Amino acid sequence: MHQRNQQRVQSNVADQDQQAPPSYTAKLLAGGVDRIAKKVGEEAAEVIIAAKNRNSDELVYEVADLIYHTLVLLEDQQIALESVWKELERRASHTP
To answer: Which pTM value belongs to this model?
Structure first.
């Protein structure tokens, strides 16, 4: 994903917390880490099932859900997506 798109998606997650009536994102954030983490776990399981079924359309859909819910979790924890990318870059630079 291009950096511009990454920032737009993360910004959209943060902005949805301010909408009225409350958006799905706002409701997730209001539910706290337990609710968000539960959704991340559910979506991860759905990614696994889609992969095992070898259904590429379903897999793309479920990975998008997993990424979205992970972004909500990062927002809840006040962690910028940029921190995740920096960690991935750090790991890549240490790979033999």
So the answer is: 0.80
